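thread: overnight batch results

M.L. [08:02]
morning all. the overnight job finished for the chain we discussed friday. pasting input first so we're all looking at the same thing
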Amino acid sequence: MNEASTSTTTSGRGGVALPDTPWTLMLVLGFIVSTQILKVVWAGLVVAIGDVDVDDVSMTVIFVAGIGLWLCYGPGTVALAAQRAGSVGAGLRALGIDGAPRPASVGLGAAAGVASQFVLVPIVYLVLRGVIDPSSVDDAARELADRAATTGDRILLVVLAALIAPIVEELAFRGLVLGGLGRVLPVVPALGIQAVLFGVVHDAVITWPGLIVFGLVLGWLRLRHGLLAAIAAHMTFNAATLVVLLGDLDLPF
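M.L. [08:03]
and the structure it wrote out:
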């Protein structure tokens, strides 16, 4: 059985079906707005209470500052889906997690993540090289890695980027957001809007084009192979970046 089979309709084409979810587009929009407000408020409190120099933020502060958003994206999304669907199990199925992981789907997702990082995203910035300096993308990526000066900092960075962020962001964007959009929109607009939302909630504007295109890949994986495939892709995408950054290698763009 396909992982997404009990939580999708047959409204898509070519085997790609939109989720059939018990929440509305207005709920999704409210969720996005409220989580971004909380993100700013929580990070501001962390900086103020800790009397942090914003020009010299440690990995520990970055980790703590992200907790509020992660709780919303992860447990908050699951709780909201469970409340709307009637149970935790039904909520997870509506989000795109239905049964045990299928190795083929997860493996495909993992491969798609690596290919997106080393092939697809570089092509995006190659196309945009007339308006975006590729070196500025590299600088944006290395700014965070440069804060990981100690072994403990590097562990925090790996946990954040390769484990926590992929899981909670996929629950929120490919689970909750795409599900709400799928209630009122055809496949292509729903995929496009969720990808744009996914890109623009990230702070570094220079990364938006690559993340939007990658968001399309993640959306397709979720619809075709279930949320676990999208999570696997997101994990390997971020892990590939960390290998390059922490290994002091050159990004492929």
